[in-house]
Design brief:
36% of the residues are buried. By secondary structure, the protein is of the alpha/beta class. The protein contains eleven helices and 14 strands. Helices cover 40% and strands 22% of the residues. It has two domains: 31-114 and 230-281, 3-Layer(aba) Sandwich (D-Maltodextrin-Binding Protein, domain 2); 117-221, Periplasmic binding protein-like II (D-Maltodextrin-Binding Protein, domain 2, 3-Layer(aba) Sandwich), CATH 3.40.190. The protein has helices spanning 2-30, 41-51, 53-58, 70-79, 90-99, 141-153, 203-208, 213-216, 244-253, 256-265, 277-281; strands spanning 32-39, 60-67, 84-89, 105-110, 112-113, 117-119, 134-138, 158-159, 172-174, 180-184, 198-201, 219-220, 232-237, 271-272. Its main location: membrane. It is a lipid-anchor. It is found in: Membrane. This is Lipoprotein.
Length: 282
Amino acid sequence: MRKYRWWLVAILIIILAAFGLHLATSSKVSQHTVTVGAIGPDVQVWQHIAKSKAAKKAGIKINVKSFTDPIGLNKATASGEIDVNAFQSWSYLETYNKQNKKAQLAALGTTYLEPMGIYSKRYKKVSDLPNGATIAIANNPANTARGLLLLQSAGLITLKKGFGVTSGTNEIASNPRHFKFEEIDDTTGPRVLNSVDAVLIGNTIALTGHLNVLTDSIYHEKIDQTTKNNINILATAKKNAHNQTYLKLVKLYHNQQIQEWIKKKYQGTKVEVNKPLSYLEK
């Protein structure tokens, strides 16, 4: 009987050991690897997320690849070379899809808004800007349009009906204070602050000039339907729009600990936007 019991114990130990090995192997198999392509500050954000406890808990291993060419990154995502990308706004995605019918992308979810701001060394609020003031505005179509929409939001100008994401100053319907617009390379915004009455600067460029859009601008974008096109998203190939692993990346981005790190790292200027995709599609 003793020998029989020992055999039972030995068999039980072997079964448990084998079961444990199976669990360990299954755990390794269940971990999903996702390649995320990013540009600029988003590279650092996703490198941080890749190392986070939240990513490990979600069973996702994230490989981050840095790009400098946005169109190249979108095409790499559409072809499957990159699983998910993090860099573009909703309007950028829509424009890309219109121009690339055979390499379509889809949004997975929203991430943040980096507000564009109106900055001035001479005036403390937009209502102080005098008649005939010179306002510097970006000379690339997307940021020109975005800047004009911001000026309209501030109550300084009105735009024609049908104003689009690449419209320019010729689409201004009313300029009652006769502002003059000086087109500049948008990377030079902080450097021209002393030579004009006001400058419109995107947040990424503002940060390079040690400007915080939330505290240093005299007016900036808010999160509402007028700025929905500027909200950043995570994107993937259209066929992967419902991939459950990729969708987990959206939840990871909005993890509380990760958001606290982003807020500290970028001084609160990457304003979290956790909205359903229907908010963008209205």
